[in-house]
Amino acid sequence: MSECTVLALKEKLEEGHGTLVDVREHAEFAGGRVSDAKLFPIGELESRHKELDHDKPIYVMCRTGRRSAEAQKKLRSMGFTNVINVVGGLEAWKKEQLPLERDEKAPWAIERQVRFAAGLFILIGVVLAVLVHPYLIGISAFVGAGLVFSAATDSCMMGLILMKMPWNRIPETEEAGISTAN
After folding, report:
1. Burial class (CB in 10 A: 0-12, 13-18, 19+), 124
2. Which residues of 13-44 are buried (b: 16+ CB within 10 A; e: fewer)?
3. Looking at the annotation, which residues are catalytic?
4. In whole angstroms, what is the distance from residue 42 CA to residue 161 CA?
5. What is the pTM (predicted TM-score) of this model?
6. Which tens digits make up the pLDDT trace of 5-24?
7. CA geometry: angle at 162 spanning 156 and 167, to 5°?
8. What's the rounded Cα separation, in Å, for the pair 7 and 13?
9. Sign of torsion, CA 35 37 41 42?
């Protein structure tokens, strides 16, 4: 599998070589992205891959490199031969203090929303257990078990649910111009 660092990506983009495809979700993209990146959420690759040029190198990026590695495999299975995964993703880009674009009205990052929601549910469970009935501590236990399961499986059902919430969706009227907002 072909890979490159964020510094190599920056150089390639400055030279005009290839297309940068960001496979994160709309809310993540709005919260911070590399200039000129094209948003193709990983779940939309199958339906939108025809928008990509088979003849140009395609650099795939996500937050850390995990989803982009999966996207790289998907694109290769669809006949793309020159797909390069950006190692470390946007987190590596930030670590190198490279420039980012961000929408002014971007929602909180999904991870921050998950921490907020989990903390809120745990707090509500404890308060209800003290004020209403001790068995309501089960709410807190359920959320805690969900967090343990999430860490053990490296998946997050709460994050997937939160991504579907209205505040994390980009209105259709804004989708066409999302990469130009700053």
Report:
1. middle
2. beeeebbbbbbbbbbbbbbbbbeebbbbbbee
3. 62
4. 16
5. 0.71
6. 999 999 999 998 899 999 99
7. 155
8. 10
9. negative
